[in-house]
Amino acid sequence: MENYTSAVDTYRNAIRYWWLGPLLGAIIFIMGIVVFMHPGESYAALAIVFGLLILFSGIVQLFLGINMPRHTGRGWLIASGAIEIILGIILTFNIGLSAIVLPFFLGFWLLFRGMTVIGTASQMRHEGIPGTGWTIFWAVMLIITAFLVLIFPAVGAGALVLWLGISFMFAGLALIFLGIQLNGMRRHVGERV
Predict the structure, then answer these.
(1) What is the mean pLDDT of residues 53-73?
(2) How many CA atoms lie within 13 A of 158 on its CB side?
(3) Helix (H) or strand (E) holding 31
(4) What's residue 167's pLDDT?
(5) Neighbour-count burial for 28-59, b at 16+ CB within 10 Å, e otherwise
(6) How far apart are CA 152 and CA 159, in angstroms?
(7) Which among 188, 181, 169 has a CA at the least distance from the CA of 135?
(8) Spatial distance between the Cα atoms of 2 and 127, rounded to a whole number of angstroms
(9) Nearest to 118 by CA among 98, 142, 97, 99
(10) 129 Cβ partners below 8 Å, 6+ apart?
(11) Which of 85, 111, 91 is nearest to 45 (CA)?
(12) 3-state SS, residue 73
């Protein structure tokens, strides 16, 4: 129980704002479905949508990092949020550049996102928090997808649409399951959060 209490102290703000993960995850997952429903949309539109999602994701990460206690590794969360905001702005406002480098941005962003989720879930598992298996599973699927995107970046726009849809769905599911875990912690500890 002491490990659980320590985890609650470590993730206090993440637990308090547990709903941000599933909200962002649901938006990303829905965007994955939209990509499959409208595969004929222009490549430039995908670059803009991707840039906006990264920008929103970075804002959420920065918000959570700023509100975390200093000893919890908040610097990594703030840094990743700032990097995502910069990448999101670049992709959103420079369509020509983003159309060329979209597969590389997508691959590295997904790889970074997957590792971040695995690190958080592993720490939660180490501290005795149950239910991290599905979160780790979806994050591993996200990392595998990221490697495939990075290995085959020169595929046609149609294949990129497929990878983008699958990647968004895996990223969304990973964030949803992480948020569910945090909500479980919130319900378990009640007023202490």
Answers:
(1) 80
(2) 0
(3) helix 20-37
(4) 81
(5) bbebbeebeeeeeeeeeebbbbbbebbbbbbe
(6) 10
(7) 181
(8) 9
(9) 142
(10) 4, 7, 181, 185
(11) 91
(12) coil
pLDDT at 85: 92
Placement of tokens 């968004």 in the chain: 168
SS (H, E, C) 95-144: HHHHHHHHHHHHHHHHHHHHHHHHHHHHHHHHCCCCCCHHHHHHHHHHHH
Instruction: Give 82: exposed, middle or buried? Use CB within 10 Å, 0-12, 13-18, 19+.
Output: middle
Instruction: Please report, as a single letter, which amino acid is at residue 156.
Output: G
Q: Which amino acid is at 77?
A: L
d(CA 131, CA 139): 14
Compute the distance between CA of residue 91 and CA of residue 163 in angstroms, rounded to an integer: 18
Higher pLDDT, 42 or 159: 159
Please state, in angstroms and rounded to a whole number, the distance separating the CA atoms of residues 184 and 193. Answer: 12
- Per-residue pLDDT at 192 exceeds 70: no
Q: Supply 133's token pair.
A: 């298996």
| CB contact at 8 A, 49 and 27 | no
What residues have CB less than 8 Å from 19, skipping those under 6 apart? 179, 183
Phi, psi for 148 (deg, rounded to 5) = -65, -40
Summarize pLDDT for 122-175 with one digit per residue, the tens: 877 877 777 778 888 888 888 988 888 788 776 655 667 777 788 888 888 888
